Amino acid sequence: MTTAAGLQTVVTVPARFRGPEGVANGGWIAGTVSEALHGARYDSAVEVTLHAPTPLETELDLRQLANTATLTHGETLLVEAIAVAERLDAPAFVPFNEAARAERGFAGLTAHAFSGCFACGLREPGDGLRIFPGRVEGAESVAAGWRVPITVADQDGVIPDAVVWAALDCATGWAHFAPGEFALLGRLTAQVHRRIYPGGTYSVVARATGREGRKLFGESAIYEVDGTLVAAAKATWIAPA
Fold it and tell me: How far apart are the first and last CA of the chain?
């Protein structure tokens, strides 16, 4: 519906799209709010700040204004998105076969704090994205070969931006994490340049870019098999005290 405050809709996050148990995957919900702001335009990046965990299976208010979009639960601000004029750096391309080999070193195979995560959890094939970034030999990056399940396409056969953002999200954390370690996503800025197709194969690459107290910083990218950049992101994570 349209109100004096802008376009407002009610959304509910299905349990499938969880990160930590009981709350939404940070990248998925960031992409959902970004898409409300950005539509299908690929001409700028969007910065999304996660102010509080987003509950699952709960009616939430998604409001789009001229330059911002917000997700709230009652009086609680959960997520806020703004368009930004920013060029995002991308980690160097890793060929798909090399990225797939790197998955054997995925720290989450040894110990995973959120093994049910939609993006990087040990879910059944076709249910989650099963993106398992492992250290790339001879590089300061992690990578995974992403085989896009057809089950994440929408009714029109399109992979939603929410799924693309989820793919960009967790890899930036695994660029830092040892087995069993975790942090929570605080901010994700991303730009999608091209469509991703169900059944396609892509390289997901990420690198750690620094740490400041409890804040962890990283960058990620998705590439087609020929090295064409599909999407890029930078993330800020908050480690537990």
Answer: 41
